[in-house]
Every structure is written in structure tokens, then in C-alpha cells.
């Protein structure tokens, strides 16, 4: 684990997914997580 620096305001998560047949799923949207200021 590492701490997130104080200048970071959000994280962008990019996912790689497969369907039930094992094929890559294209066009999966990214997720932007805004961090709370403390």
C-alpha cells in the first residue's frame, strides 16, 4: 500500500473485461473517482 499524494484530486480507473465466452469486451467506459478533501 502507498498513500495518495495530497495534490491528487481524482483517480481514473480503466477496466479490461471478458464476456462469458472469454472474448474481450470493447468500449468499457472508464471510471473517474473524485477523492474527498480531508
Automatic annotation (TrEMBL):
Domain Ubiquitin-activating enzyme E1 C-terminal positions: 1-31
Pfam families reported for this sequence: E1_UFD
InterPro entries: Ub-activating_enz_E1_C, UBA_E1_C_sf
Protein name as annotated: Ubiquitin-activating enzyme E1 C-terminal domain-containing protein
Native species: Adineta steineri
